[in-house]
Amino acid sequence: MKNIVLIGFMGTGKTSVGRMLAARLGCAFHDLDKKIAERSGMSIPEMFARCGEPYFRAREKEAVREAAGRSGLVIATGGGTVKDAENVAMLRENGILVALTADIDTILLRTSARGKRPVLDGADAGDRRAAVAQLLAERAHLYEGADVTVDTSARAPLEVTEHILQAIRIWRK
Fold this sequence. Notes:
This protein is α/β, with parallel strands linked by helices. It has one domain: Rossmann fold. 54% of the residues lie in helices and 14% in strands. It is built from 8 helices and 5 strands. The chain has helices at 14-25, 32-40, 44-51, 53-68, 85-93, 104-112, 125-143, 157-168, and strands at residues 3-8, 28-31, 73-76, 95-101, 148-151. Helix 2 (32-40) packs across helix 4 (53-68) and helix 4 (53-68) runs parallel beside helix 5 (85-93).
C-alpha cells in the first residue's frame, strides 16, 4: 500500500487528521517532526534555537528518506518539508500527497494554542498575521502539486478524514 503523505502549513490539521486516518486505514502513523525530536533528544523549537534551521532541515531530510522508504504509513510532514524538492520527490515516489489547507484566521487560532512555532515565535499578533500570510504566499505553489487538496478551515478532523478516504480510493488501486 502506498503511503498517505499529509503536507500543508502549520495548523492545518496534519497531526490530528493523520492519527485518525491511520486508525481508519489500520496502519501506522508517522509524525516526522516527532521522530526528528525523539532522535535528536530535543524539541523542534529547541533545535532551531540551539543548532539553527539548516541543522533541522538536514535532520528532516534524513527522516523523510527513512519514512519514504517504507510503505503503508500515514505520514504527517512539517509545514516546511515541501520547501525541499528532493523531500517531495522522495515522498511522492511511494506516496499519495494530500495537502491540507486553511485560511489565515484558522491557522492563527490553531497555532496560538499549541506550543512554540519557530518560524512565528517572537512576532506580536499583527506581525504573526503578516508572517503567516507571507509564508502561505511563499509556499502556496508547493502545496498545489498535491494529488488531493482539502480545506480544513470549517471542518472537524473526522470530516477531513472521511473526505480524504473518499478521495484516495482512486489512488490506492
